[in-house]
Amino acid sequence: MLDHAELTQALKAVTQPVASARGLPNALYTSAEGFALERERIFQHGWACIGFGADVPNKGDAKPIDLLGIPLLLLRDQTGELRVFENVCRHRGMILVAEPKNFGGVIRCPYHSWCYSQDGKLRATPHVGGPGINVHESIDPERTGLTPVPMGLYMDMVFVNISGTAEPFADFIAPLRARWADFDKPLFHGAGSSFQLDVACNWKLAVENYCESYHLPWIHPGLNSYSRLEDHYHIEAPRQFSGQGTLVYNPRLSETQAFPDFEGLPAKWDKAAEYIAIYPNILYGVHRDHTFAIRLDPKAPDHTIENVEIYYTSEEAAQSPEFAALRKANAALWKEVFIEDIFVVEGMQKGRGAPNFDGGRFSAVMDSPTHCFHDWVASRLA
Amino acid sequence: MPDAQEIDAALKADPEGRNPARLTKLHEEAAALLSTAEEQRFHLTHAWVYALVSGNTAQSNALEKRLTSLGGL
């Protein structure tokens, strides 16, 4: 049970300065009520990532998406524009699209065949007025189309705001867009570069771990030889995003081949890379020759699916057979790194079962990006 | 021109509507075998829906005209 009075007190402790703050309380990692509260206050009332443009690459492609039990439909319409609707027929609430498919024409509800054009308009209501009578005065097609969901697109990530009450997407993403203006370039989705990890932990633990470099020497020892702890720096945009950067990005996938870099990058990015958690549920990495996105899909308080997509700087690097082996090696490398994190995030999840664990403490020097995220969550739930 | 039994069998062979263009044709053929406006409207409605699913604008427009003339739209 979530005691709201206790939660209020606990959240006050989270929003203290990092040196004296406590972490988020156990109930927000273990309870159904905590999960439901976050579903509403974070995932419905704010911007959350539901997928990628690469999920629907062709005109007419549609993919059903479950966002914490909210049925959505991601569609690339016949003009190539991305749209998001509630994946629900306005008639009797039937799920319209149960699996990814391509639509050459309307989207037909499998129950009574109400049809919607790809811009969401109600196009046909067969037999609604009786057999063979396809109109009725009680159904106004102008007011009975698919329910659109506000969406925004950034670096091929599709964000939605279910409630329609968040700030405009342009305002939400502006600070990160400004920080990463150098990467505001076309991205090409890597063929064979997608993978999923199924993790027994609350979604927030994946964010918290990603934000900090403090764990790198112990959990990712392979990095120690070329990217030491002191080569990393904090990134903190209070109540927006946080993460870490490295001054030593030095890819060594092959002796004879390298991915092409983004054109026109300032010299800073020759060796730097940045890894930022875009609250709530994207973990993003930028490098001079590729980017990746981890979309966190919370399934239960103690269960998260991590969906990983990798993007390259050119069509050739992303799709050609010439780069296939290198793409495979890059994906395998990142998969290995992300798998190394699993036992600690799952271990922290188990630790949340300790009744006297009080949310923990933060290293004021090393944990501030993680505390930045805790503070944001607390502000959303208060 | 197939008979009613053949059309019925062909319709039953595609319960999920995987071949909407063929279903449009079958329903038009079924309507052609029927004599009353009510019977024709039923099948032309289905023909129209599957033409919309196919994205065949010319065909769906033509079927809308027929349905309108029969009182179905």
Question: How many helices of chain B in DSSP terms?
Answer: 4
The shape of chain A is: globular
Averaged pLDDT of chain A: 96
Pair with the biggest interface: A-B, 18 and 25 residues
Rounded to the nearest angstrom, the distance between the terminal CA atoms of chain B is: 27 Å
C-alpha end-to-end distance of chain A:
17 Å
Q: Which oligomerization state do the chains in this entry correspond to?
A: heterodimer
- Helical content band of chain A: 25-40%
Query: Could you give a short account of the major beta sheet of chain A?
Result: 8 strands, antiparallel
Task: Summarize model confidence as the mean pLDDT of chain B.
Answer: 93
Q: Could you give a short account of the major beta sheet of chain B?
A: none
The structure class of chain A reads: alpha+beta
Shape descriptor of chain B reads: globular
Number of strands of chain B: 0
What low-confidence regions of chain B span 5 or more consecutive residues with pLDDT below 50? none
Helix/strand order of chain A, N-terminal first: HHHEEEEEEEEEEHEEHHEEEEEEHHH
Rg for CA atoms of chain A: 22 Å
Strand content of chain B: under 5%
Your description of this structure?
The complex is a heterodimer of chains A (382) and B (73). Chain A is an alpha+beta fold and 382 residues long. Chain A has helices at 4-14, 27-30, 32-44, 169-179, 203-211, 216-219, 315-319, 324-351, 368-381; strands spanning 48-52, 61-67, 70-76, 82-86, 101-102, 107-108, 115-116, 122-124, 151-154, 157-160, 188-189, 195-199, 232-237, 241-246, 273-278, 282-286, 290-300, 303-312. Chain A has 9 helices and 18 strands. In chain A, the strands form 4 sheets. In chain A, strands 11, 12, 13, 14, 15, 16, 17 and 18 form an 8-stranded antiparallel sheet that branches. Chain A has a 4-stranded antiparallel sheet with strand order 4-3-2-5, with no helix packed on it. Chain A has a 3-stranded antiparallel sheet with strand order 1-10-9. Chain A starts with a helix and ends with a helix. The model of chain A has no long low-confidence stretch (mean pLDDT 96). Helices cover 73% and strands 0% of the residues of chain B. The mean pLDDT of chain B is 93. The interface between A and B is medium-sized, with 18 and 25 residues.
